[in-house]
Write a structure and sequence with these properties.
The protein is of the alpha+beta class and 84 residues long. Helix content is 32%, strand content 33%. The chain has a single domain, classed as Alpha-Beta Plaits, CATH 3.30.70.100. Strands 2-3-1-4 form a four-stranded antiparallel sheet.
Amino acid sequence: MPRALTAEWQRVASADQPEAARQWRLRRDLLAREGCHHWVFRNPADPDAFLEFIEAGSAAILEGARASAGMKPSAEVLIELELS
């Protein structure tokens, strides 16, 4: 079964970044319990720009985990291309 991924840009002002990091840690733990991986990357050229990735074994798992985490359902879900 192909894996599924969402990728969403977030803008977070410097003063709000400690709280954003705390929220991302909580989200990572919740998503892990739902069977997902969660990463956040910072753009070194724009320190207020963050790209948040969530990955799961299927679109259904990913969408369910995002809903459990209270995330908006409008994120574009990308499906892994099978290369074998």
